[in-house]
Amino acid sequence: MPHSQDYALPVLNPVTDYEKIKRVGEGTYGVVYKARNRKTGEIVALKKLRMDRERDGMPVTSVRELRVLQQCCHPNLVELKKVVTGSKLDSVFLVFEYCAHDLGRLLDTMPRRFHESEVKCLLKQLLEVMNYLHNHWIVHRDLKLSNLLLTNDGVLKLCDYGLARYFKAYEEAYTPKVVTLWYRAPEILLGLETYTEAIDMWSVGCIMAELLQHQPLFPAKTELGILELMAKLLGSPNERIWPGCAKLPGLAQFKLPHQPYNYLEKEFPNLSTTGLSLLNGLLTYDPDKRLTARQALRHPYFNEPPLGKLPQDMPYFASAHDADANDDQHKRQGSILRTACGLQWTQWKHRASNAAAPSWIVTVHLAASSEAKGWITYNI
After folding, report:
1. Rounded Cα–Cα distance for residues 141 and 197 (Å)
2. Closest CA to 196 of 267, 272, 74, 288
3. Residue 20 pLDDT > 50, yes or no?
4. Which of 256, 295, 324, 362 could be bridged to 291 by S-S, CB 3.0 to 4.6 A?
5. Which 8-state DSSP code applies to residue 77?
6. Range of 84's domain?
7. Rounded CA gap, 86 and 192, in Å?
8. Which residues are catalytic?
9. Residue 252 backbone dihedrals phi, psi, to 5 degrees
């Protein structure tokens, strides 16, 4: 387990080294541009941070994210290339590798559903990067489709480490309100404070289901609504399948209906028995019995036909980032596709409200309070 508390990021280049091509998004913490390196021609994502939102320096979410970005290296983690500065001290930009898609937006605009071989390709890449993070004692805590980017080479890239943190082998209370609601594990919803990396694996199960169905598995607006959908699909949590759950504060707070049956097979009639085994293993109530990333990677589902495609064999999709997100034609097409995929308008409206920013953006903050030249150093 890593114990290093100090790290530094180089700040060596001016933002004038980059030519802005177009604005592709704006979020709570900054504006993002598709940009080109003037010297090399490389296309990047350039994010200008909003420094007026933080009065006391760097928020803890930023510290965590930058720490992960610097200390971890994996082909399925989005790469932070540089930190660059503008003409003013509080003008700070982050330079990321550019990815053409995020899976949340792609699912809403693509003309067909993913084939199962394509789902396997994406799912296996996600499991690889989760296995890497968990082996390095990092829990992401905000896995969702919009935090999964896809390059034109079929490579999946995990982004947004604002909630990521190092976890310990012993029990320790963590922040309870993590993970976007639709992907939040039952132990968090029911008030367990000593959760583990298993919360990420529940989110992986939700993502697997969404990739297969092209609609979210638990699209509710409240914690109670999510728990009711879980109980309706998976059966109600009880002491037999989840020892100790009766002591969780949320089980007394939320009056869940008694429903003893698991209906995953009915919900996914085209999924093989082996595929259902994997999905059930990821969507297991008891976090101690839930599949780990390593176990999921070894699951026989990936060895049965149809075999997963290689990344380079994934289909090419036109980039939604190069289109105007507010374009009327885009909205009309999205409405037609949502109807065709069975996603109700109320669910889609809530999906849109759940994503506060264009979803491929990596949310990183940086306090430009240091006047040191060449390096900005933080202690955490």
Report:
1. 8
2. 288
3. yes
4. 295
5. B
6. 6-99+361-379
7. 44
8. 142
9. -80, -30
DSSP 323: S
Residues 156 and 89 in one domain: no
pLDDT at 56: 53
**Domain CATH for 199:** 1.10.510.10
User: What is the structure's pLDDT at 92?
Assistant: 77
CATH number at residue 71: 3.30.200.20
Structure tokens at 352: 């849109």
Alpha helices in 157-222 (DSSP H): 186-189, 198-213
The token duo for 64 is 């965590």
Please indicate, yes or no, whether residues 224 and 146 belong to a single structural domain of this protein: yes
| 13 located within any domain | yes
Whether the predicted pLDDT of 376 surpasses 80 = no
Q: Which two tokens stand for residue 150?
A: 């896809």
Domain boundary residue, one of 290, 313, 336:
313
Tokens of 232: 């309706």
Do 134 and 293 touch, CB atoms closer than 8 A?
Answer: yes
The mean pLDDT of 118-137, rounded to a whole number, is: 97
**Hey, which bits of 38-172 come out as E strands?**
43-49, 80-85, 92-97, 101-102, 138-139, 148-150, 156-158, 165-166
* Residue 268 lies inside a defined structural domain of this protein: yes
Q: How many domains does the chain have?
A: 2
Cis peptide before 306 (omega within 30 of 0): yes
H-helix or E-strand spanning residue 138: strand 138-139
Residues 75 and 169 in one domain: no
Looking at 287, 313, 339, the residue that finishes a domain is: 313
Same domain for 108 and 92, yes or no, is no
Task: Give every CB contact of residue 10 below 8 A, 6+ residues apart in sequence.
Answer: 82, 83, 374, 375
Residue 171 lies in a domain: yes
Q: Any idea which residue has 């003893």 for tokens?
A: 260
Question: Residue 299: its pLDDT value, please?
Answer: 99
Q: Which residues, including other chains, have CB under 8 Å from residue 314's CB and lie 6 or more apart?
A: 118, 121, 150, 153, 154
Q: How far apart are CA 151 and CA 161, in angstroms?
A: 19
